[in-house]
Write a structure and sequence with these properties.
Strand order of the largest sheet: 8-7-6-3-2-1-10-9
Number of helices: 12
Order of helices and strands: HEHHEHHEEEHEHEHEHEHEHH
Radius of gyration: 19 Å
Number of strands: 10
Structural class: alpha/beta
Largest sheet: 8 strands, parallel
Low-confidence stretches: none
Helix content: 40-55%
């Protein structure tokens, strides 16, 4: 097999490597209008465009936080929004050394004949949309595939459909200059133990990389966004060290060293849990050929959102809360997080939602 080396190959490799810079990570601010509405309603703020813009501006103009980020994933609306001073968000990010990314999938649909398993839609006009997003300043993309663990799940049909979908998305992105973040998320819903999650994660990742190989995806110009290997949401918790060992083992067995970086999703863990688990992985004394970093949404924004509460007078202290989470996760990518940035306890609150949808 030879990877597809198109006109963007060098740029893709450079951008993927930059996003994977140790000490930096990704802010996932790509919630759909419906999902951001749920977040805003939790603080009694109306889901209108001006309020969505205000939240994103708070995050993107947070002093000292942007140097700790290498990328921000945007929703289509946000890609074209501006600050209240009239500066496009894309320019705010680029001027601070942060690459803009874009969510390109259109959500999940049920796979007929399965026990509630799904595949991801969004292939219609994907190439032309990626081309337009590149012209608007985006340099990477995200597509979320969702799998679940059950008595007979994930099924072979679900694994293959989602693996092939991720690979097709990835090569279309690369043809149009966008680094694809490959996201096969295995939900934590269930009462399974950590060993079952590890087995499912290895099986899914092996299928994903076989599909990426078959479709000639340039791995050096990609990033992986997986779940951490944890027990199910209805099972007893285990230590960060155990999560680190099972997660890194699963990755070492399946993810080629050509991939520059692995940026974890938080999967409904509390802000502090996600950070402590990432830190434990980076402290593990084993060969890790890729950067282990973060691509957190809820686990970077929750305490910031609660602190802001939609009030202008709270913007400064909300930005301080955001900086604290960025700093904690930056340290965790280096295995140097000492804990204790939970502040007033907001960072320790569970963010789990059953069957989570963007």
């Amino acid at each position: 097999m030879s990877a597809f080396v198109g006109k963007y190959a060098e740029e893709l490799i450079k951008n993927a490597k930059y996003i994977a810079t140790p000490g930096k990570g990704i802010l996932a601010a790509d919630e759909s209008t419906g999902t951001i509405g749920k977040r805003l309603s939790s603080i009694n703020v109306e889901n209108i465009e001006s309020n969505r813009q205000a939240l994103r501006e708070l995050l993107f103009t947070s002093p000292s936080a942007l140097p700790l980020l290498s990328g921000v994933i945007l929703f289509e609306e946000t890609l074209y929004q501006k600050t209240t001073d009239g500066k496009p968000f894309v320019d705010v990010l680029l001027d601070n050394g942060v690459l803009p990314g874009i969510k390109v999938d259109k959500g999940t649909v049920d796979l007929a004949g399965t026990n509630g398993e799904t595949t991801t839609q969004g292939f219609d006009s994907l190439g032309s949309r990626c081309s337009q997003y590149y012209k608007a300043g985006a340099r990477f993309a995200k597509w979320r595939a969702v799998l679940k663990i059950g008595v007979n799940e994930p099924s072979e049909l679900s694994i293959q459909q989602n693996a092939q979908g991720l690979a097709r998305y990835a090569i279309i992105c690369q043809e149009n200059g966008l680094v694809p973040i490959v996201e096969p998320e295995i939900l934590t819903d269930g009462s399974h133990d950590i060993k079952k999650c590890a087995a499912a994660t290895e099986t899914v990742l092996a299928a994903v990389y076989k599909a990426l190989n078959d479709q000639h995806v340039l791995l050096e110009g990609t990033l992986l966004k997986p779940n951490m290997v944890t027990p199910g949401s209805d099972s007893p918790k285990v230590s960060p060290e155990e999560i680190a060992e099972y997660t890194v083992a699963a990755l070492r067995r399946t993810v080629p060293p050509a991939v520059p970086g692995i940026v974890f999703l938080s999967g409904g863990q509390s802000e502090e849990e996600a950070t402590v688990n990432l830190n434990a992985m980076n402290k593990l004394d084993v060969v890790k050929p890729w950067t282990l970093s973060f691509s957190f949404g809820r686990a970077l924004q929750q305490s910031t959102l609660k602190t802001w509460a939609g009030k202008k007078e709270n913007v400064e202290i909300a930005q301080a809360a955001f900086l604290a989470r960025c700093k904690a996760n930056s340290e965790a990518t280096l295995g140097k997080y000492g804990g204790g940035s939970g502040g007033d306890g907001l960072a320790s609150q569970s963010l789990y939602e059953k069957g989570y949808k963007y």
